[in-house]
Hints:
By secondary structure, the chain is mainly β. It has a domain of 141 residues: Pnp Oxidase, Chain A (Roll). The protein contains four helices and 14 strands. β7 and β8 form a beta hairpin. The longest helix is centred in the middle third of the chain and has 9 residues.
Amino acid sequence: MFYQPQDGHGLPHNPFSAIVSPRPIGWISTRGADGRDNLAPYSFFNAVAYSPPQVMFSSTSTKPDRGDTKDSAGNIRDTGVFCVNIVSYALRDAMNASSAMVAREQDEFDLAGLEKAECETINCPRVAAAPAALECKLTQVIPLEGDNNFMMLGEVTGIHIADGCLEDGRFDVLKYNPMARLGYRDYAVVRDLISLNRPGQKP
């Protein structure tokens, strides 16, 4: 089939998110200017540069008590910082619980039964049990086409790595099995690896 998004796809569910998959999950923690903590997963997320290390995520909807955006993006615009927590398979249910649409006053850490830890370089909580966490300073907010679509770009100012995820000096994803977002209600978990040398690269 072929369709133009402006004309609709005619299917029971939108295939776009299933086509662009798997996508890493940015489990974004923030602290509002009012001191309230927030945690929510975003699948429009990725690393975008090495030096300095930078990441992005996009918020694509709104909620009644946040005006033109959601709690994560609103907090980041107010404070200029956020933390990206990496989602392991063991944390899948907690991640899912934190995706609930709840009032601004609700702390998703409590809702998901998660222990907090404080970041080192920014005033923000992080998920203590996450295999890794990236402390970030906001560098840009880019409005995207459409209503309530905002891309947040951040420079990584601090990196936490769980000691148990290091093996022979490498961050070993098979030690924690990262989760990825597919389409619809589907997710994937990384359990197998393959390695490929680039053309001309020594083994």
